[in-house]
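User: Fold this one for me? It's Polyamine ABC transporter ATP-binding protein.
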Amino acid sequence: MTEPVRIQGLCKAFDNLDDPAKPVLAVNQVNLDINEGELVTLLGPSGCGKTTLLRMVAGFEEPTEGDIFFGDRRMNNVPPNRRDATMVFQSYAIFPHLSIFENVAFGLRLKSQSRKKIEKHVTEVLAMTGLSGMANRSPTQLSGGQQQRVALARAIVMEPRVLLFDEPLSNLDAKLRDQMRIEIRELQQRLGITSLYVTHDQVEAMSISDRIVVMRGGVVEQVGTPREIYSQPANRFVAEFIGRANFITAKVGEANTVDLAGARIALDAPIAASPGDSVTLLVRPEVVTLSPTEGIINGTVRRVMFLGNLTEYLIEVPGTDPWLVELSGPEAPTFTAGDTVRLSLPPSSIHVLAE
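Assistant: Here's what I get for Polyamine ABC transporter ATP-binding protein.
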């Protein structure tokens, strides 16, 4: 059985050694509802408060203010071992002197379950995590990806109501990270466990999450689905942290238009500014198309980088900062540095950022 998680007005202050009168507020008034069976990711740079928030949910840190609920149960004063929550750590935290079977069975033995039940349950979980046939091996005989599977198996064998992940893939190489995040997501969906996941890797967050919580300085900047966070960021910080972006200054015109690099573009979404005001537009590199002759904005190619699945162009556009453009696909045109080009972009792809 799994449960929703509710976080209300959560704060965590630490002592400030430089100025005891001004404690450091690591988490500041966080409110978050995690639905039953949902995987929510806390995403942000180092020091944004995401790990502190996770540790408060786990019970390893005591909140300064606010409440944490699993279902209808207030968890603030419940010790970690009684929260029905398990954590997969960045460091794996596997016992090197125990076999894989005994590592996974460790928590069940502490709960005094019968030998028959432990053997059945551990065997099922080892199969579920791709570790069948490795039960008697030592952790030192396993690869990094296999060790991470052991850590995951040890967490889910306890049948937790809430599953917590503290940057579990950061010690793996790029290919293993890609593989493991797929496995974690598929397993979480199959089991339907309410999960809270911490990472600083935007690709990881985008690929596994039902929703993403972007944090900065202990504060939640935006909560939304990966698509919402990417296409409709709440502010420039979120836009810069999720994906690559062009930030273009434009003037607001009449009838919901903007004057951009010599072109007047009618936007689909209403503009919360008056004619004549300056606004910052978010334009993602992949929405812009290039042509030798057809387009609405003039530009000059300044840099070309072939990246295999796409080609990246830096385009100098009069009156604005250079534009980053990404073209992909077999029919995409190719250009060289110094070429004159025309740029086009659909109005639906232009997002006006809130100041």
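One thing worth pointing out: The helical segments are 50-58, 100-110, 115-128, 144-156, 174-191, 202-208, 226-231, 236-241.
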